[in-house]
Amino acid sequence: MAIVQQKTVENDEAGMRLDRWFKTHFPGLGFGHLQKLLRSGQIRIDGGRAKADTRILAGQSIRIPPLAVDEKSNKPLTQNTIKSQGDHDVLKQMLIYEDPKVYVFNKPAGLAVQGGSGLTRHVDGMLEAWRNKKGEKPRLVHRLDRDTSGVLVVARTRGAAQFLTKAFRERDTKKTYWALVKGLPRKKEDKISTWLVKDQTPDGDKMRVCEHGEPDSDHAISYYKILEKAGSGLTWLEMEPYTGRTHQLRVHAHYIGHPIIGDPKYFEADQNWEFPGGLQNKLHLHARRIRIPNPSGGMLDVTAPLSPHMQQSWNLLGFDMSEIDE
User: Fold this and answer.
1) Quick one: which of 34, 97, 202, 219 could link to 104 by a disulfide (CB 3.0–4.6 Å)?
2) What is the DSSP string of 128-174?
3) Domain that includes residue 26, residue range
4) How many Cα atoms occupy the beta-carbon half-sphere of 109 within 13 Å?
5) Is 53 left (phi over 0), alpha (psi -120 to 50) or beta?
6) Are residues 192 and 280 in the same domain?
7) Catalytic residue from among 12, 19, 145, 147
8) What are phi and psi of 137, to 5 degrees?
């Protein structure tokens, strides 16, 4: 017997358009079919009629009539689910692409890629659970900061690791990040070119912009362009690191006067600035997409869904992602 469902809107879905909510939960449901169900009143919010562009609120109940498509079941990983599950299961939930030579994961914010002081769990250690029949452990070929979410490429074989490491070293790769920054940059797009040096601080390593020629400094180049703005207070940037220095995008955003929202190291707010209501005070930086030669042939081109806290912010600010990833 066909069943009518009632689903409750989650906190990180607040502000999302109703049609986007259905696309996320029921990707097989066509827009025309959705419109027909809305017009006939079969889909309702808290018992009332709704439209495709209705913004939903946390805690609301959505009536879902019997549909001929399956519901998408993979919910985003949270810190609680990471803590409660074994390494194999967490990696399986993070996985967004695989072939015989490569894994691509959507790393959650807060999960370290490698071990460090006080860290008991990290991606490198978790990969022990995925050793193959030959005993080979998948190998890291690049890094993401602990608080940065998004695309993480892992080699399944030694040969693939050598191939991918060479591609990163020779910059045959294109990495696209999304960031939410304070204020509105003067230029719609620009190149940022500086020298960076690492300082030891009580809070760990911190990068700073320095003069050319300072000992142990490295040249760093980043590109950005504005995708959308929320008034003059917040801006959604697409950022691309040409070089791969530690904290590069974070320190470059700070350098141009528009630090990334929620950055614990590089965000310095003035006294008159208040953190936007409804947004979580977490780093708003996400490795959205990577394009890199695939060891199996052709190009690897993978996009990672936003982390829950950034999705919540995008919903609240009304940012539309539907036409961006072209």
Assistant:
1) 97
2) GGG--TT-PPPEE-S---TT-EEEEEEESSHHHHHHHHHHHHTT--E
3) 5-64
4) 20
5) alpha
6) yes
7) 145
8) -90, 135
pLDDT digits (tens, 9 = 90+) for 14-42: 898 999 888 888 877 878 889 989 999 99
Task: Please say whether the dihedral angle defined by the alpha carbons of residues 27, 28, 32 and 37, taken in this order, is positive or negative.
Answer: negative
Domain membership of residue 239 (yes or no) is yes
CATH code of the domain covering residue 9: 3.10.290.10
pLDDT category at 1 given cuts 50, 70, 90 is: very low
Cα angle 312-313-317, degrees, rounded to a multiple of 5: 120
**Which tens digit of pLDDT belongs to each residue from 130-157?**
998 889 999 999 999 999 999 999 999 9
Whether 145 sits among the annotated catalytic residues: the reply is: yes
**Would you place residue 302 in the very low, low, confident or very high pLDDT band (cuts 50, 70, 90)?**
very high
3-state SS, 88-135, equals HHHHHHHEEEECCCEEEEEECCCCECCCCCCCCCEHHHHHHHHCCCCC
Segment 298-306 mean pLDDT = 91
Query: Contact at 8 Å (CB) between 148 and 142?
Result: no
CA 52 to CA 16: how far, in whole Å? Answer: 11
Residues 6+ apart with CB under 8 A from 17: 52, 53, 54, 55, 56
Give the distance, in angstroms, between the CA of residue 305 and the centroid of all CA atoms in the same chain. Answer: 6
